[in-house]
Specification:
- By secondary structure, this protein is α+β, with helices and mostly antiparallel strands.
- The chain has seven helices and 18 strands.
- The two termini are 28 Å apart.
Length: 344
């Protein structure tokens, strides 16, 4: 029962986490990613199969086994359908093929792992990146019940199998003539071409810049007289940002703690970073921020007339952010998604 509830929660987290979430296109990095999830025993309204497409962190297309249609999730994707009237029909047919194969693969894996009927998940993630420094990145992975099942190594043109049950599929796929070469060509060429096309269609949204707003909240600890300062950087786009605490103009890592870059509901991002200091040395510290939306870097000083917040409020702010980040990290660390319409 416990294992079943854990798997059910895992499947829910997959869908929630995905629906939340580089040659230079402009000045920032960009990515195209696809996530496929098959569930053997869905309930509470979940679909047997879900396919999601993301450009950067923006969901642009989706398919599920209830609607059985690939649908646009952003207005700029309507341009794709106008340019290619068969686009959505062809994407729907491919998704239906993946859905059928996922059902078969779930049964094969349940037998291969000698498991009873119940809730199991089969997942696939693949995509490409155009990074800020001009380099490209690609990835393709499969997973079963939250563990890595297979990962594609495009340098050696082989599949990597971490478990004995996956080695059967590894040998089968590696033996198909030209199969792995096609995967590499897709990731390095076709995926990049589609990413550039999507960036062109959605340039008003995806290539925009929104400068960060920087605020500092502070608290003096009565017991030891030390001060805690949290620099909040929010409302910025794109997601790449350089934020740090400095002392006398140099990056200061001692007694500092950082949050990750996290998306906001409006498509922008936020980040926080804290530091504990001796109030006598307050004038030596700055919150330093560099971002594409800024004409020049920001250096925010710690002034005497700073915003004071109660200890409980500051703790709540940090605690909530940390809890959210931990959830995202746990999901990212435990889930592996999958690609290619192949029987395992």
């Amino acid at each position: 029962m416990v294992a079943r509830m854990a798997l059910r929660s895992l499947s829910l987290l997959v869908l929630v986490a995905v629906a939340l979430r580089e040659s230079c296109f402009g000045f920032s990095s960009h990515s195209l990613k696809y996530f496929y999830t098959g569930i053997s025993d869905p309930n509470q309204g979940l679909s047997h199969f879900v396919a999601l497409g993301f450009v950067d962190d923006q969901l642009f297309s989706s398919y599920d086994s209830h609607s059985r249609r690939m649908k646009p999730r952003v207005s700029w994707m309507e341009k794709v359908g106008k340019e290619d009237p068969q686009y959505w029909d062809s994407q729907t047919q491919m998704a239906r093929g993946h859905e059928d194969m996922f059902r078969v693969n779930l049964e094969v894996l349940r037998s291969r792992y000698n498991q009873s009927e119940g809730l199991h998940t089969f997942q696939w993630m693949y995509g490409c990146e155009l990074r800020r420094d001009g380099r490209k990145g690609e990835f393709m992975q499969y997973g079963y019940d939250g563990k890595t099942f297979l990962a594609f190594d495009k340098e050696t043109l082989t599949w990597v199998a971490p478990e004995p049950q996956a080695q059967i599929t590894q040998r089968k796929w590696d033996a198909i003539p030209g199969n792995n070469e096609r995967h590499k060509f897709y990731l390095e060429e076709i995926c990049i071409e589609w990413l550039e096309k999507y960036l062109f269609y959605g340039k008003e949204m995806l290539l925009r810049t929104e400068p960060p707003v920087v605020t500092i909240i502070s608290r003096t600890e009565v017991e030891d007289g030390m001060e805690t300062h949290v620099c909040q950087v929010h409302g910025f786009y794109p997601r790449e940002i350089d934020a740090s605490w400095t002392r006398d103009g140099e990056v200061w890592l001692q007694d500092t703690f950082h949050g990750f870059v996290v998306p906001n509901a409006d498509g922008t991002y936020h980040k926080w970073l804290g530091i504990q200091i001796d109030p006598k040395k307050r004038d030596r510290y700055r919150c330093h921020v560099e971002h594409d939306g800024l004409q020049e870097p920001l250096d925010v000083a710690l002034k005497d007339e700073r915003l004071q917040v109660p200890k409980s409020t500051l703790g709540l702010i940090i605690g909530c952010v940390v809890a959210a980040l931990i959830l995202v990290c746990v999901i990212a660390a435990t889930l592996v998604f999958l690609r290619t319409n192949q029987a395992i």
